[in-house]
Description:
Layout: E1 5-8, E2 14-18, E3 21-25, E4 43-46, H1 59-64, E5 70-73, H2 75-80, E6 86-88, E7 94-97, E8 100-105, E9 123-127, E10 134-136, E11 150-154, H3 162-172, E12 176-180, H4 190-200, E13 205-206, E14 214-216
Parallel strand pairs: 3-4, 4-5, 5-6, 10-11, 11-12, 12-13
Antiparallel strand pairs: 1-2, 1-14, 2-3, 7-8, 8-9, 9-10
Helix pairs in contact: 3-4
Amino acid sequence: MVSMQITRFGHAAILVEAADTRILIDPGVFSTDETFALTGLDAIVVTHQHPDHIDHERLPPLLAGNPDAVLISDPETVSAVAIGAWQPNADGLETVVKGITIRGVGERHAVILPTIPRIGNVGVLLSAADEPTLFHPGDTYEYVPGDVDVLALPLSAPWTKASETLAFVQGVAPKVMFPIHDRTISDAAYGAYWGQVSGHSGVEDARQLGQTDTTTV
């Protein structure tokens, strides 16, 4: 496999660079300011409409700095975003952006409470010839695609439970995993969450990336 570079930009936001293509996923309110100053992006992907996955206030300069980027999101977010020509993603839909194929995975956000309606959530599986595959599920453990090399793992949220996190990782069975969606955990407690998953998942290459760390796979 050819190397893929992954940079975290806070919480659920990651920049994936592979096959001469740069794709940013889920630039939300917990993302660093540097996220919204990025240029040279080929695509910007949003899995769902929650503000920790799309920051409407800081979105305009990001779009202005990347006028040629393909904009992809779940259908409900397409309807909610006031700026940019967004195209809807869907389960099984494939969008080719330069060297990478972006395939939609899933349809709905995880259940938070029975009294809160479920919104749309379309995760993404990124693949390219001779490159590792990467799965970013957005906010759900419900959908498990096959042939995932690298898993961006939501580690903590109002909808997560440690045993379900572990079952999800074991179902996906990635070669490499790293945490995302983790700004709901205090620094003092972080080791407990990551230790449970990394210690019991069976994934040999579990990388505890910080909020702005970069790794290559």
